[in-house]
Amino acid sequence: MRRRSLLGVAAAAGLVGAATACEDEPAAAPAPAGAPPLIPTDWASVRAQFAISREIAHLSTYVFASHPAPVRESIERHRTGLDADAISYLHENEVRLDERVAVAAADYLDARLDDIAFTDSTTMGLGLLYSGLRLAPGDEVLTTEHDFYATHESLRLRAERDGVTVRRVRLYADPATASTDEIVGSLTRAVTGRTKVVALTWVHSSTGVKLPIRAIADALRGRGVLLCVDGVHGFGAEDASPGDLGCDFLVSGCHKWLLGPRGTGLVWGSASGWASFAPLIPPFDGRSIGAWLGFDGGTAPPGPAATPGGYHSFEHRWALAEAFEFHKAIGRERVAARTHELATALKDGLSGIGKLKLTTPKSPDLSAGLVCCQVPDVNVEEAVARLRGLKVVATSTPYRPSLLRFGTTIANNEADVEAALKTARTLA
Asked: What angle do CA 397, 68, 422 make, to 5 degrees?
C-alpha cells in the first residue's frame, strides 16, 4: 500500500495539506555555483541570478521565463534525487515539500493554505474553474472581447455541455485612452439578472491594458455574481494580493512574471467562490484518499480538493517555493515598482518614434509590464524577426489585429530598454 503509503494512513487523519507553518527557511536560497550571491536591493545582482544570454535584450521573458538561480538549483537538486532513487526520494520528501510550497504560496498571496489549488498552467486552471463552477442551464457568464483564447474556449466548452449562456462585452474603444470609468461602466451596464459569473483578465495580453479589478469588484458588490480573474500577466508583476483585488477567483501560471518553474500554476478562491465550485479531478490529498480507504480523517479543504491528483513534474512543483522566496526576498512592492519603471521608460520612448502607435495606456493605474504598439508599415511578424536579427527579442500578440509586444521584468535593465528603442526606430 504505497504512493507514500497511499499518502500515508496518518495523512487520513488530516496531516497532509493541513500544515499552518514550516521550518524557518532563508528569504532566498543560496545561489548555486556560477551565480553570485543575491543582494536583493541591487538590481544588477538580481539580474545576475538569471542565465540569459547577455548578448540579447530579452523583452519577452514573461512568455516563458528564464529561471533565477535558486529555482534552477532547486529543480536540479530534486531531479538528481528522483533520478537516483525515485520511489525513496518521493516517499521521503513529498509531504514535506508539498507543504513547503503551499506555505510559501499562501505567504506570497496573503492567503489561507486551504484556499489555494495547484495546477500546471493558467489554461489548466481556467479550464478547471469554468468547468467546475456550479451553474444551471440558462445561467449567464459575462466575459469580454479582450480576453484570451483560454478563457473564451473554456467558456465555450462549458456552454456546449450544459446550456450555460456566454456573452462578451467591449470594455473600451481605444486601449491607449481607456479609463477606469469607461471600463467599469461598460462592464456593469452589461450585467443582467441572469449573470452569475463575470470572467475577466487582469492584464490584457492583446493590448497591455490592466483592468481596475478592485473598482470592478466594488461596483459588482451586492449583485450576486462571482468575479473570476485570469491574473497571469499581473501575478508576479503587481503588488496586489487576491484580497486587495476583491475577486472571488484568481487563476495564474507561475512561469511568467513570477519567473518560476515551467509547468506550474495555481488557483486561489475565496470562501464564497469555492462554495460554488465542484472539483473535477480526484485529488491526491491524504484526507480524500483516507476517506476512500474507510478512515475518518476529515474532509479535504477546497483548495487541496481542487488540486488535480496524479504524478506530475515534482521537481518543478517543489521548486515553486524558491520562486516565491526569491520574490519575497526582493519585495513584492519593489518588484512591481521596478517593472513599472522599466515599462514606463519603454512606453515613453516608443510613443516618440515615427509612425509607431502605442496601444498600452501610459498610466501605471491601467498598465503593468506589458507594452504593445502598432507598426503601421511593417507586418508584425516581420517586425519581430527584424528585431531578433538586431538581438532584441519581442513577440507578436496572438490576436486580430496582432501587435508588437514587449515586456519588462526584473531580469531586464535600462540597457535592454535602450536596445529595444534603438531597434524599434528601424521599423519606423
From this structure: 45
Q: Which helix (H) or strand (E) holds 108?
A: helix 69-109
Angle at 130 between CA 125 and CA 132, to 5 degrees: 95
CB 209 within 8 A of CB 178: yes
The amino acid present at 103, given as its one-letter code, is: V
Report the CATH number of the 101-328 domain: 3.40.640.10
Cell of 57: 535584450
Maximum alpha-carbon separation in the chain:
71
Domain boundaries, the chain: 101-328, 333-427
| CB of 172 closer than 8 Å to CB of 183 | yes
Question: Do the strands 140-144 and 165-169 form a parallel or antiparallel pair, or are they unpaired?
Answer: parallel
d(CA 218, CA 118): 28
Question: How far is C-alpha 397 from the geometric centre of its chain's CA atoms?
Answer: 18
> In 300-375, at which residue ranges do the beta strands (DSSP E only) sit?
357-358, 370-374
Q: What CATH superfamily is the domain 333-427?
A: Aspartate Aminotransferase, domain 1 (3.90.1150.10)
Q: Residue 352 is placed in which grid cell?
A: 516618440
Mapped onto helix, strand or coil, the DSSP state of residue 272 is: helix
Strand partners, 200: 229
Q: Report pLDDT digits (tens) over 44-102.
A: 999 999 999 999 999 999 998 899 999 999 999 999 999 999 999 999 999 999 999 99
AA letter at 425: R
CA distance 257 to 233: 7
Instruction: Collapse the DSSP code of 129 into the 3-class scheme (helix H, G, I; strand E, B; otherwise coil) and give the result.
Output: helix
- Give residues with Cβ within 8 angstroms of 159, minimum separation 6: 141, 165, 166
DSSP H helices, 121-230, are 122-132, 149-162, 180-190, 213-220
| Distance in angstroms (rounded) separating the CA atoms of residues 91 and 30 | 26
Quote the DSSP letter at residue 139: -
DSSP code, position 45: H
Residue of 411, 386, 390, 347 lying closest to 207 (CA atoms): 347
DSSP secondary structure letter of residue 358: E
Query: What type of residue sits at position 256?
Result: K
pLDDT averaged per 10 residues in sequence order, the chain, 428 residues:
37 35 38 76 97 95 93 97 97 96 98 97 98 96 98 97 96 98 98 98 98 98 97 98 98 97 98 97 94 91 97 97 98 98 98 95 98 95 97 96 97 98 95
**pTM to 2 decimals?**
0.92
Which cell numbers in the block locate residue 225? 455574481
